[in-house]
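Cross-posted from the bioinformatics board.
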Amino acid sequence: MQYESLNNPVASAAQPGWWFVFCKDKLLVKISDDDVQVPFVSAPGELNLDPKRLLHVGQLGDDPCFSTRLDSENSVPDGYAFQGMRTLFSRLDDMSYGIAGRAMQLVQWDMDHLFCSRCGQQAADRNKEGAQICRSCGYLSFPRISPAIIVAVIRDNRILLAHSGRFINNMYSVIAGYVEMGESLEECVKREVEEETGIEVKNIRYFGSQYWAYSGALMVGFTAEYNSGDLRLDDAEIEDAGWFAADDLPMLPGKLSIARELIDWFVEKNLNKEQPS
Ligand SMILES: [Zn+2]
């Protein structure tokens, strides 16, 4: 089945459709045996929910995909539960999970932009690109995506990994950070690595990208080579960092992240020398 994204006019659920219902960062799913699914709702009363604002976020085949947000997890019908998006990554089918990531961001953005940020009037209209248009002053506000870089820095068959105090465990990962205004992605790579670790890099190459639905960040991955400098850590961001060999790595991020893809790329290159890079 094909999914076609729509730039969410506020909808009324007059027809059956897929409901992506959020409470904070949790999604409502229907649970049967070991299976979880996004609920398909024939009539709005079916889930016994009373959403204040329903968005039409796309079409899956002939069926609309609606999204909404609840303030509490109360009144969830039997057989349904709210589950965290991270938990659902490997449990929900890929198509539903992708739509859920987009739906979560749109619901959040919609909630944060009920009024025009320029003149304070209610800003309910949308154009076909999904931007909100203020009825009073005409100000256009587009759904927000936050670009961020993530980079594997390599020095003599070792990778630069850092542990941040923000991590919930003793995990080490590659360097990442948000792009600042007026900055290219390559400039951001250089600045972030230098600010956080004191290392200067060269030969920055694009690796791949990943949309990180939990934060609305578009993670743009790079590889880079060590150029100069000694490790000098930004105490506010980084608690520890070091150069690690492929056969002597610390605790790493989960398999699903681009951070881990970058580290796996490094391991593959350095443990299997015959493999082309
Ligand atoms: Zn306005």
